[in-house]
Design a protein that fits this description.
The chain is mainly β. It has one domain. About 0% of the residues lie in helices and about 45% in strands. The strands form 4 sheets. It has a 4-stranded antiparallel β-sheet, with no helix packed on it. Strands 1-4-5 form a 3-stranded antiparallel β-sheet, with no helix packed on it. It starts with 5 loop residues before the first strand and ends with a strand. This is Recombination activating protein 2. One of its GO terms (molecular function) is sequence-specific DNA binding. It holds the Pfam family RAG2. It comes from Centropyge venusta x Centropyge multifasciata. InterPro entries: Gal_Oxase/kelch_b-propeller (IPR011043), RAG2 (IPR004321).
Amino acid sequence: HGKTACVLFGGRSYMPAGERTTETWNSVVDCPPQVFLFDLEFGCSSAHTLPELSDGQSFHLALAREDCVYFIGGHSLTSDCRPPRLFRLRVELLQGAPLLSCETLDTGISISSAIISRTGPTHRYIILGGYQS
């Protein structure tokens, strides 16, 4: 529809100050599993909770293609695992409010801390670095 938005998902933050102890003063936690959309033209944002995204996730790969963002791999502190999942997040920027849908594909790869790069004009990509569980 000629509109664009920035998508933010995952990451880690420091444990809230009220929950820290002397032993955990520098501990991190997964950010809540929410998707944030930012409209840079008008300066507005929105937060979305999707049932498919039930755990926080960090160190995943993200790839945007047309109206979809793909999240590959990553790590969850809550479950201490790197599940081989692939999420396909579809973002439709409709008039009024965006429409988000998410599909989980258990055919991803269990990788974290890598980067992904497009290798040419076709939709071919290469994953560089990272590690598998």
